[in-house]
Write a structure and sequence with these properties.
- The complex is a heterodimer of chains A (327) and B (281).
- Chain A is 35% helix and 26% strand.
- Chain A is built from 11 helices and 14 strands.
- Chain B is elongated and about 60 Å long.
- The chains are: A alpha/beta (327), B mainly alpha (281).
Chain lengths: 327, 281
């Protein structure tokens, strides 16, 4: 089966900044692929190239088997784009926004009207459809933006940081909307800075740094590669801290870390869940009451630290964001 | 439930439509409508240009007007209003770049560029909507001109030609300011640049004062720049001939020269705007 997105040795330079430095990537059809990386890693540049908004300097890029550089107009019929900014018109209603995009996709008036109604239903905005978008909340705008990219029934949906800046509830609502799409057979390529988001939505995660792919795999595979799990215990009484430390020492191979300020003891644990079972049993046997106990998987920061030797803080290549040149 | 939704969507989306996006006319009409709705539903955008125009008109008619001599038999109010209408075109168009820059920054243009439509249509739609807004401001200004005492004895046909010429000027200058909005980094920069482009040709012109009242070194620019040329055409059409308007050449000469300017501006700046919008970086 033709991969929905296939990039080989993709390069793009903005002045002195190498935004894409020989990026290789294959996204299979049938599920969500997440591009994960810090600001300036090249995620937006890559999405823009797939969306035919910018031309790579070198390398090869195909969407559903179509060459992006030589046949951009054909690619545009396959894709739907929702950007970092909610690019909907505040002076139009939700319905008008969707009908507008529908008409541009070549639907007639009636077709656009029913396509808009179907999409409104799917993104849960039917009740607010006739309100001007300027009265919408940030989360509603973002959902409408997602909806706008769906009106043309794209084969591939491109989402550039779809949930950045949203509150937790709006984020979860948007995640649900994206999951429903995938269930209906739309392929999704999304960028995110959050490991959690990639974890929630994607089957394949591609980690990008400085314009290159530095790791790819399922979220679990990446976390396994990125670092070990940590068992963390927070006893109810601070006086139990030494006892907890003793238990963790007995279970783990290394010396545990005790943080007196937050009353937590933690230790790296290769055995993950199995070791946690032992810890919980020992705590119970000694009658130590705990507020919290669990296995914590590595965070994006830790993944990055392991894979790149530095944190996921915004890099100096931040200005590689091509949208800054769009104005 | 999921299956049901997707079946519905399949029926509403004919297969053929998926293979072709909107054509040039549909895309132009849709993007024009979008910008027009922005104006209609944001009363400030709709009302500020005519209000600003009225303010300027009153200032020149009643404050500076008394001290300005036209150097001919023409009443100052007739001299003023016939020129004022043309220079108002630029003042109204001054709002365009900020709107364009905002669309570019908000990601709307990225979405439109990612759609299977002719990219030139997006700019064509924008220019039509802005021409409509500007025409409305000019219509209000013309009515106010009559209200402050402007009278014409020209034949109706000349008046129609005068307004047709103003419409051509509106369309031409719309492209200048759209281009400006596309090259500006943001709305604020666009606004500042627009002011810089509007002030010299509107004031260093024959809109408010006769050009012979200016120092010699200014007269060449003042007399030959497009705003003055179009004003000469409109003035002589509205005031009943070049002698009455005191503009030297014949009315036909000024109209032809004005049209040449408008066509030239449209050719250069629509090309620039479309190329800039459609370019794939």
């Amino acid at each position: 089966m033709t991969p929905i997105v296939e990039a080989r040795g993709l390069t793009k330079r903005f002045g002195t900044v190498e935004a894409l430095a020989g990026l290789d990537l294959t996204a299979e059809s049938g599920h969500v692929t997440a591009l994960l990386g810090p600001n300036g890693a090249g995620k937006t540049t890559f999405i823009s190239a797939v969306a035919t908004l910018l031309r790579p300097d070198g390398g090869e890029l195909r969407v559903a088997g179509i060459d992006v550089t030589s046949e951009p107009q054909r690619v545009r019929r396959v894709i739907g784009l929702a950007g970092q900014f909610a690019s909907v018109e505040p002076a139009m209603t939700g319905r008008e926004n969707l009908e507008f995009v529908g008409r541009l996709f070549g639907l007639d008036r009636r077709g656009a009207r029913s396509a808009a109604a179907a999409v409104l239903d799917r993104i849960g905005l039917t009740d607010d459809a006739n309100r001007l978008v300027r009265t919408y909340s940030g989360g509603m705008r973002r959902r409408l933006d997602l909806g706008a990219s769906l009106v043309g029934r794209p084969q591939l949906l491109l989402l550039d940081e779809p949930t950045s800046g949203l509150d937790p509830r709006s984020r979860i609502e948007l995640w649900d909307a994206i999951r429903n799409l995938v269930a209906d057979g739309t392929d999704v390529l999304l960028t995110t800075q959050y490991l959690e988001e990639a974890d929630q939505l994607a089957r394949d995660v591609v980690i990008i740094d400085r314009g290159r792919v530095i790791a790819a795999g399922t979220p679990d595979e990446l976390k396994d590669r990125a670092g070990r799990d940590v068992i963390e215990v927070r006893p109810r009484a601070a006086g139990d801290l030494p006892a907890v430390e003793g238990i963790l020492t007995a279970v783990a191979a290394e010396a545990p870390r005790c943080d007196l300020d937050t009353s937590r003891v933690s230790v790296a644990a290769d055995g993950g869940a199995d070791q946690l079972t032992v810890v919980v049993r020992l705590l119970d046997e000694r009658g130590i009451a705990v507020d919290d106990v669990g296995v914590r998987r590595p965070s994006l920061d830790e993944v990055f630290l392991t894979l790149t030797g530095r944190g996921a803080a915004p890099s100096t290549a931040d200005h590689a964001d091509p949208t800054s040149d769009a104005a | 439930m999921t299956t049901l939704t997707s079946t519905t969507a399949d029926t509403v989306m004919p297969l053929a439509a998926r293979d072709a996006g909107a054509g040039f006319l549909t895309a132009t009409g849709q993007t024009a409508r979008r910008t027009a709705l922005q104006y209609l539903r944001t009363p400030q955008l709709l009302l500020m240009p005519p209000i600003l125009g009225a303010l300027f008109l009153f200032i020149f008619r009643y404050i500076f007007g008394g001290a300005i001599s036209t150097g001919t038999d023409i009443d100052y109010v007739d001299f003023l209003v016939s020129g004022f209408l043309v220079q108002t075109v630029l003042w109204t168009a001054m709002n365009i770049p900020a709107g364009v820059a905002e669309d570019a920054a908000s990601g709307v243009y990225d979405r439109l560029r990612s759609l299977p439509i002719p990219r030139a249509a997006v700019m064509a739609g924008r220019s039509l909507a802005d021409t409509a807004l500007n025409s409305w401001a000019i219509a209000v200004t013309a009515i106010l001109g009559v209200a402050v005492g402007f009278r014409t004895h020209a034949d109706p046909a000349s008046i129609v030609v005068a307004f047709a010429l103003i419409l051509a000027a509106i369309y031409a200058f719309t492209w200048v300011f759209i281009s400006l909005g596309l090259v500006a980094r943001n709305a604020q920069a666009a606004q500042a640049m627009a002011t810089l482009i509007v002030v010299p040709p509107t004031f260093v012109s024959n809109a408010f004062v006769p050009i012979d009242s200016m120092p010699g070194w200014l007269q060449d620019f003042a007399a030959n720049q497009p705003v003055s040329v179009i004003i000469n055409a409109v003035r002589s059409l509205m005031l009943g001939g070049t002698d009455a308007a005191g503009v030297g050449h014949s009315t036909g000469y000024w109209v032809a020269l004005s049209l040449a300017w408008c066509l030239g501006i449209i050719a250069v700046f629509s090309g620039l705007a479309v190329a800039r919008f459609a370019r794939t970086r």
